[in-house]
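Thread title: Can someone regenerate the structure for this chain?

I was given the following input by a collaborator and told the matching structure tokens would be attached. They weren't. Posting the sequence so someone can regenerate them.
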Amino acid sequence: MKRFIQKLGPGLLFAGAAIGVSHLVQSTRSGADFGFGFLWALLLIHLVKYPFFQYGPRYASATGESLLEGYRKLGKGVLILYGVLTFLTMFTIQAAVTIVTAGIATSLFGDFISVKIWSVVILSICFVILNVGKYRFLDVMMKVIIITLTLTTLIATGMAVYNSSEAVSFTQHLPEGSLEITFLIAFMGWMPAPLDISVWHSLWTIEKQKTSIETSNPKTAVLDFNIGYIGTIILGVSFVGLGALIMHPTGNSFSTSAGTFSVQLIEMYTHSLGNWAYIIIGIAAFTTMFSTSLTTLDASPRSIHKTTELLFEKSFKNGYLIWSIGLILGTLSIYFFFLSEMGSLVKIATIISFITAPFYALSNYILISSKHTPKAWHPSKLMHVISGFGILFLIGFSVWYLTIL
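Best answer:
Regenerated them for you:
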């Protein structure tokens, strides 16, 4: 068991990056506003995105290189487009996850400093951790965080079911009007995560190989990923359940303010477990969002740094450090000069992620099915079918959304 846990890593990093805004914010809001009505969307989008997420660690462990090297083999234009999309989205994504983390910190540790200042503190701490502890520390830390979050969330959900006196309806709901459609797109955009995390996952798989004494193989990498992915499904359903069982019967909705939302979120847990659990749940929620802020601050600079090295065909010694500082400054610029409302930041980031998803789905599928991947690790017939359905779904849903704007 100890050896098995040691082999795990990138899959839990994936879960740590995924179980953040999509779960704490979007899933609980879905439950609060629609009950279990959008449960179909949660399960469907997990199925649709599954192959394209899995192809990241599968390709990396089968070839010893990340998806970025694979994109370069598909053509320089593919890698350039990835770099452009990453640069255009990474600041908004980092801003969205950090402001939620800052909001929870405000409610947990006190509002003696503003959410904006908390954001500065959180980004600074993440920067120090990543540049001192590096990947190995990130790997160990994430295992503790994910286990803590899983246990507390499942306990809270179980208590909510036990204490609920309302009749629960599982009638599924189709969106009506532009507001509900916009929410559905945002909900599915980051559920369980943006598809560009498949690139991050492939980079983490390579880093894991560097720090592990045991040789990785595609079978182990896929198992590691599946464990993390199943965890995101279970927790996604749990967060929807908490919103549906506790918030939905009251008719209340979650606030778009980071500070107010975090108070509502923690109170939702304590309503289920009791006031004694306030600190425990508060710390669990904070560490969850902190882990997301930490993984995104690591992955975005890591991926854009690797992209520039591949495009210019040269090594940049301090590229990761420079991009990390640039991401922090860009994120803080959004807060102080453009937009600091949590609701708007989350909506923008999640919708952009959904619209760009077809690019990652197509690129990953073409790469894993090409001559650049050992034939033994090409997708099975079932995965080909799911991939084809997923690509058509993502393209069709994105086009439909753009036509109704």
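Residues 2-404 form a domain with the Amino acid/polyamine transporter I fold (CATH 1.20.1740.10).
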